[in-house]
Each structure stands twice: as C-alpha cells, then as structure tokens.
Amino acid sequence: MIDHVSTTVADIEKARAFYDAVLGSLGAVRVMNAEHGPIAISGYGRGGKPSFWIAGGTGEAPALAGHVAFAAPDRGAVDAFYKAAIAAGARDNGEPGLRPHYHENYYGAFVIDPDGNRLEAVCHAPA
Questions:
Q1: Which of 14, 15, 76, 122 is spaced 20 to 30 Å from 24 by Cα?
Q2: pLDDT tens across 102-117, in order?
Q3: Is the pTM of this model over 0.70?
Q4: What's the number of domains the chain is made of?
Q5: Domain containing residue 119
Q6: Closest CA to 64 of 111, 13, 9
C-alpha cells in the first residue's frame, strides 16, 4: 500500500551523511539525489528502489508537512485517486502525469489534504 515516505531535514548534506551510515547498517543505500528548486532530496532503499526520502536545504528545515505516496496498480488508479481526493476537498499539488525526472515510467498525482499533508499516488509500470 505504501510506496514511499519522506521527512524534512535542516541540512541536506549532514542528513545524507547520517542516513548513509544509519540506513547502510540495515542494508539500504542512497539510490537517488534530485533538486526541486531550493530543496534537495535523496531517496534510500534496497534493490534500486527508493522508499524513504529526505528533503531539505542548507540550514533551515523547509516548511513542508508530511508526505506519503500510495502505490497504485496502474495509471487509471492514479487518475481515480486524484479525482477522488479533489472531490473530497484536497488541493491540487500536481495533476496526474509522467514525472520522467524520477524515471521514465513514474506516473504520479499529488494533492494536499485538508490538514496540509502531501499525498501522492504513484504507478511505476509502463503504460
């Protein structure tokens, strides 16, 4: 059901060093680094798939709420998640679509729930 989760950090480089060591002790490695404007992110996991993410800058934790990504069985389910969330009162944070900056088949939709938490549905399978 859960595809991945993320947490915010104040200093991305210090956090990367910390999680490289701590998660490495559990057999997980840093799989991916990316930038989203002033926020840098890193994903950790096993078998090449990141399932735990850290997001931050260089000194102050960004003002982001929690993030949970739900695994969807196909792209139609991602679309249905988005429509249901908007109808139930969520705010748009990224319409359903491909996100090739993650990987070529990353199809996701992003919303913000009424409490400010960031929710996502994602399918990693080709169309």
A1: 122
A2: 999 999 999 988 767 7
A3: yes
A4: 2
A5: 67-123
A6: 9
